[in-house]
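> forwarded from #structure-qc
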């Protein structure tokens, strides 16, 4: 007997977790999880199966056979972003991932801190420090990871504004497909001559590494490099910027926790940001589609059913994290789902963690008496609908240096 996706009237809940702007997302997730660990509701206006416990979310991410990442991404983003790692399965994914991985190894990260990350953080603060006020989203978090990736790739600094515009345009596929395609073409036309130049005369930048790395006698072709570069901005810049903003928001609204970090920034910034992105993961939901009818963990899942794996729901599962809604910079949470799990685990997790650590340290060192301006409109909310989440703004004041 073939399974069928429930109709709109047969759902467990009418909420649309991607389109609805819920006033208290955490409370809604707890309430739904308490009813059912896997629940039929809506996503992007369609019936969708939500996984809401840490156990189910981690098991689904690990189960690439049943829920191949390619099944969703391969259908949705390829015309704008090309066939990238997220659209690959099996041997093709293994080889492509091995070819791009060397530049993202954990042990390389300390070598990036003094020459790359710290100067960018200082440079951004230099632009506003004399005024005694800033919006940390507009003036810092939304800029920092774009500049990091641009400089890591060795792209010209004069083009940073264009690159940010193309990257944001490509991300906005759901709202404006034509603009996303236009941005994708412009970005590729810009990168093409740079890639050819690095192939013949490599430097110490990431494009040169991608152009010259060899694994098992194979190298990346031009198309594969373009596709990887187009993935880097949506995967690496938007996420990091939202995660940094959410961590700052938690610290600014919890003065007792901020005091602990200020007392020992070198020791505490890393664990504060890990806790910040546990509580408010930038990627709140990960989409998946299973290609075949399956009964999985006793849940009947019809072929083609849209699924959303609840990263935020898993990160706040009380079965794993006691008092899960409390922001506790000393928690040092393990097994967070923030960066995914399994074969598609975030390639840039070590870089993202280093970026968050450095940015927090530099911000708190330069602006130690940072205060959030009293503004009831400040909130952590959706950016691409509610798939991605972070603060809308962070207006702050601080003592300007004389
Ligand atoms: C706080 C920041 C970040 C978060 C929360 C994050 C989150 C994630 C998640 C959840 C996935 C898995 C997606 C899935 O399974 O469908 C992922 C994959 C990925 N991320 Fe990140 N990411 C962050 C930063 C970065 C950075 C800085 C880079 C690179 C510069 C990066 C590159 C990637 C790539 C290439 C993949 C695809 C890996 C694959 O399919 O094999 N991410 N990320």
């Amino acid at each position: 007997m073939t399974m069928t996706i429930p109709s709109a009237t047969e759902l467990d809940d009418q909420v649309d977790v991607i389109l609805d702007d819920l006033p208290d997302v955490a409370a809604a997730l707890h309430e739904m999880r308490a009813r059912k660990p896997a629940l039929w509701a809506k996503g992007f206006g369609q019936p969708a199966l939500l996984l809401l416990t840490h156990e189910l979310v981690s098991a689904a991410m690990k189960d690439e056979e049943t829920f191949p990442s390619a099944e969703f991404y391969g259908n949705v983003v390829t015309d704008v972003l090309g066939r990238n790692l997220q659209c690959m399965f099996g041997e093709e994914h293994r080889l492509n991932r091995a070819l791009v991985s060397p530049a993202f190894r954990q042990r390389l990260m300390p070598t990036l801190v003094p020459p790359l990350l710290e100067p960018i953080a200082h440079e951004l603060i230099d632009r506003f420090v004399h005024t005694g006020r800033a919006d940390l989203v507009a003036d810092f978090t939304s800029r920092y990871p774009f500049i990091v990736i641009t400089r890591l790739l060795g792209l010209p600094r004069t083009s940073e504004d264009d690159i940010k515009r193309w990257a944001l345009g490509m991300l906005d596929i759901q709202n404006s497909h034509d603009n996303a395609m236009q941005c994708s073409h412009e970005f590729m036309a810009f990168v093409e001559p740079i890639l050819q130049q690095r192939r013949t005369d490599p430097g110490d930048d990431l494009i040169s590494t991608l152009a010259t790395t060899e694994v098992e006698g194979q190298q990346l072709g031009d198309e594969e490099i373009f596709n990887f570069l187009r993935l880097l901005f949506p995967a690496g810049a938007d996420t990091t910027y939202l995660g940094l903003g959410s961590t700052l928001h938690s610290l600014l609204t919890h003065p007792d926790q901020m005091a602990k970090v200020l007392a020992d920034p070198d020791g505490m910034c890393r664990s504060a940001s890990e806790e910040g992105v546990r509580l408010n993961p930038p990627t709140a939901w990960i989409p998946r589609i299973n290609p075949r009818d399956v009964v999985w963990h006793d849940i009947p899942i019809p072929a083609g059913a849209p699924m959303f794996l609840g990263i935020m729901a898993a990160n706040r599962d009380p079965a794993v994290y006691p008092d899960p809604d409390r922001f506790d910079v000393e928690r040092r949470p393990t097994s967070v789902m923030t960066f995914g799990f399994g074969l598609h685990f975030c390639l840039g997790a070590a870089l993202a963690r280093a970026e968050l650590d450095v940015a927090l340290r530099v911000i708190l060192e330069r602006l130690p008496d940072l205060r959030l301006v009293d503004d009831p409109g400040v909130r952590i909310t959706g950016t691409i609908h509610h798939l991605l989440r972070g603060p809308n703004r962070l207006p702050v004041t601080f003592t300007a240096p004389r």
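QC bot note: The chain has 16 helices and eleven strands. The chain has a mean pLDDT of 94.
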